[in-house]
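ok so i was messing around last nite and threw this chain in just to see what happens. nothing serious, just curious
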Amino acid sequence: MQEQFADEVNVVGVASRDDLPPMRQFITNMGVDAFPHIADISGEIWEEFGISGQPAFAFINDDGAVEIVIGAIGEDELVKRMTALVAT
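result:
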């Protein structure tokens, strides 16, 4: 998705509530190392968005409106949501 929407959507992972080595290992194991990640060790960012666990997604448009999705999202749904972000 990051490659498909590279010039239109910024994708950032937010790893939380663990130490750096396990976070890095998770990113590598899940194959999501193509985009940047933030180490949210204290969980402050997750808390700000009302997220308590993975997977979760925060879709933020250019106006700053946020839509939170808790749970897994398939590729088709992710493409649909990212396409909607581009359209706003």
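not much to say yet. Strands lie at 13-16, 37-40, 56-60, 66-70.
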